[in-house]
């Protein structure tokens, strides 16, 4: 499949318009996440994973493994890279199949409900879409939305997840209904949420920890804050954060289009420096790894 962009800042968008969101779902999604919005996509998935910890059955399992308490950075990096491998190379590529085997091997060690697996899958679809539409340098094309849905539906099938809805809107409604039904406070939510918040703060100088904490609180919706037992975010901090994100988007709108995918190219990766050079998906995770976080 030719993935060369057309000329100009909107060259990738014009290329997407020529593709089919079902047949070419991987190609389209790789353009969206790897070329057009790599920074936004990474930030959105950070909050997507954070969101799953509001479900007590998920956070209880994560707390029981002890991985988020002992090795939060490695758990985060394993999650990001396993999904990025499928994004960059495709779920049916050699590296994509190896990534899926790694994920499935770790999941098989635990009794995880199909609905929890379905819910985690929805966050990989809809959270980045909402983030990019709100903070990205352009809104997503309808084909990008559908391609994301079809891409992760195929990933879900290969993970053995059952009863994946067949339409974009039906799966989105499942997500909303599941959150309404399951989001509630628990001590495990608070514990896993705090470990994750501490991890985010560790990426910045210690002097910025209060600012990072307040920024995260400001970007959480009320339901998430309540499920974690976190304080409500400051409206002033929220306004500042939103303005900063939108200012960044305005600047990026005038930058040249990317000609290399950044799906797996993260020179700042703390656990696997220089990844993917010298590594393969089977090297990620541990024999008894954190299940949902590797989803």
Automatic annotation (TrEMBL):
Residues 261-271 have a biased composition (Polar residues). Transmembrane segments: none annotated. GO terms for molecular function: oxidoreductase activity. The keyword Oxidoreductase applies. Residues 256-295 are annotated as: Disordered. The keyword Oxidoreductase applies. It is an enzyme of class 1 (oxidoreductase). This is Oxygenase MpaB family protein.
């Amino acid at each position: 499949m030719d993935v060369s962009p057309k000329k100009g800042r909107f060259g990738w968008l014009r290329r997407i318009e020529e593709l089919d969101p079902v047949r070419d779902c991987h190609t389209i999604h790789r353009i969206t996440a790897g070329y057009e919005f790599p920074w936004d996509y990474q930030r959105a998935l950070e909050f997507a994973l954070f969101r799953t910890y509001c479900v007590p059955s998920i956070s209880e399992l994560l707390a029981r493994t002890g991985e988020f308490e002992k090795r939060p950075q490695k758990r985060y990096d394993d999650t990001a890279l396993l999904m990025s491998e499928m994004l960059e190379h495709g779920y049916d590529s050699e590296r994509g199949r190896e990534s899926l085997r790694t994920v499935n091997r770790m999941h098989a060690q635990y009794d995880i409900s199909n609905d929890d697996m379905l819910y985690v899958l929805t966050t990989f679809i809809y959270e980045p879409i909402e983030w990019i539409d709100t903070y990205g340098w352009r809104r997503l094309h309808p084909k990008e939305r559908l391609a994301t849905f079809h891409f992760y539906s195929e990933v879900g099938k290969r993970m053995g997840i059952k009863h994946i809805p067949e339409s974009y809107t039906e799966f989105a409604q499942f997500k909303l209904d599941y959150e309404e039904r399951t989001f509630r406070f628990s001590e495990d939510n608070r514990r896993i949420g705090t470990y994750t918040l501490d991890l985010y703060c560790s990426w910045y100088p210690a002097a910025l920890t209060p600012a990072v904490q307040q920024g995260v609180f400001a970007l959480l919706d009320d339901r998430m804050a309540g499920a974690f037992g976190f304080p409500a975010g400051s409206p002033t901090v929220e306004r500042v954060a939103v303005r900063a994100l939108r200012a960044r988007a305005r600047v990026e709108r005038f930058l040249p289009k990317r000609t290399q995918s950044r799906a797996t190219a993260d020179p700042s990766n703390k656990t696997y420096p220089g990844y993917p050079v010298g590594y393969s998906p089977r090297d990620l995770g541990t024999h008894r790894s954190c299940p949902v976080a590797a989803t």
